[in-house]
Amino acid sequence: MKLYELTNDYQQLLAMLDEENDLPPEAIADTLESISAEIEDKADNIACMLKSIDANINAIKAEETHLAERRKSKQNAYDRIKAYLSDELQKAGISKLETARSKITFRKSASVKIDDDIFFDWAESNGKDLLTYEQPKANLTAIKKAIGDGEVIPGAQIEEKQNIQIK
Q1: In sequence order, what are the residues at sequence separation of 6 or more whose Cβ sits closer than 8 angstroms to the Cβ of residue 163?
Q2: What does the pLDDT read at residue 167?
Q3: Which residues contact 103 (CB under 8 A, 6 or more apart)?
Q4: Does the reported pTM lie above 0.70?
Q5: Three-state SS letters, the chain
Q6: Contact (CB, 8 A) for 138 and 117
């Protein structure tokens, strides 16, 4: 029997007691005791199931934390080794390497490097379109375009990099 069925039976028995007073006291006591015992068993089983689920939830949370730490550690190792490979290949003058298992190439990219002390003072009075206004920060896309178009912007320059690609 399900817990809600036992609860309904218990409530019906209590309602019958209110309506009929001619039931023998032993029958009432036995019936209440048997229903109560079954309710206690069901409730105890459900409580144990909840404890088990809670333990699983806590184990999953702990594993999530552990996995996040492992991922971060692996990401840091990946970044360090990738930077090492890139630096050493560039020092050796190797821009392309292909083996049976991998292909390593470099592709040029350009990014804007900002000297905050110089650039923001200049941009406030000369190039407000080169700023975005959350907390003042440089609009790197606009600055890159302006420098590419030949404009001289104090405190900003194009910095070329070699980015490694592993396929």
Answers
A1: 86, 106, 107, 108, 109
A2: 58
A3: 97, 166, 167
A4: no
A5: CCHHHHHHHHHHHHHHHHHCCCCCHHHHHHHHHHHHHHHHHHHHHHHHHHHHHHHHHHHHHHHHHHHHHHHHHHHHHHHHHHHHHHHHHHHCCCCEEECCCCEEEEEEEEEEEECHHHHHHHHHHHCHHHEEECCEEECHHHHHHHHHCCCCCCCEEEEEEEEEEEC
A6: no
For 73-90, the pLDDT digits (tens) are 999 999 999 999 999 999
Share of the chain above pLDDT 90, in %: 49
**Can you tell me the distance from the alpha carbon of 136 to that of 152, in angstroms, rounded to the nearest whole number?**
20
Q: How do residues 11-51 score in pLDDT, each as one tens digit?
A: 877 777 667 667 676 777 777 777 778 888 888 888 888 88
Q: What is the pLDDT of residue 145?
A: 94
| Beta carbons of 153 and 119 less than 8 angstroms apart | yes
In the structure encoding, which two tokens stand for residue 89, read together? 């290949």
Residue 157 tokens read as 């320059």
